[in-house]
Amino acid sequence: MTSSPVNAQPPLALSQGLLNLLTTCPRKFQYTYFDELGLPIAPEQQASVTWGSQFHLLMQQRELGLPIDSLPAMETDFRESLEALIAVAPDLFMPDLSPTDPVTFRQSEHRRTVEFGGYLLTVIYDLLILRSEQGQIIDWKTYLQPCSRLVLAQDWQTRLYPYVLAETTTLAPSQISITYWFVRHRDRQSNCLQPQQLTFAYGDQQHEQVRQDLSYLTTQLSQWRSQQALPKVDLAKGICPRCPFAIRCQRSLSSMISAQSSDLPALAEIEEVAL
After folding, report:
1. For residue 127, what are the contacts with CB-CB under 8 A and spacing of at least 6?
2. pLDDT at 214 over 70
């Protein structure tokens, strides 16, 4: 019987957010994950993050059957958002009455992990509802403007969450779906917003594509980890000037202009051309 080395490192855990980072720019992934570099958050963005965290807590408390009226989050804005969501999607909150395919599992903030290529793929479902022939993944989105369907379809959350569920249950990929609910009830001008949803079906073809994409990414990451620095994103994608690490990577607009200027020969070194 062999024992594991004392200094053996546990496998890295990869969430959908980290996979999005790795896909967008490996160097940004390095700064965020390996180097643990944080950046200050603008007050407006912090307020949005806080609102989202409190709403998720509110939904978790409600799902557990705990009283929510006393929660700090139950101010008018949260109450209106919850009431509007219940009005639009009552089936999410009513007792299960299906005689043919009853709910076998239902949990808020449910975590699942599966090993893949030496990494741990980790997901946390805002709400997971399982039946013998159906798996519903519900995700609360608390930012104001819903993403386009095309953008969300390419997001790793849309791909990873159903993948992990298919790998950890007996459900077929075609029996799984993920639904995003955009729940913010009022915009910055206090205009009323109705909850909106986007649902994505899953299937065997998507499952195999996700497996291939994960295999490629994890193989690349394993190779890159032996290097001093992970590669930077291609400049042609045009995302560097908007990145908070642009200056660190010397890819801010000012640094690139400065670099281009330094490549120019000195005026005295330019030969005069006879006219």
Report:
1. 59, 63, 92, 106, 107, 108, 110, 137, 138, 139, 140
2. yes
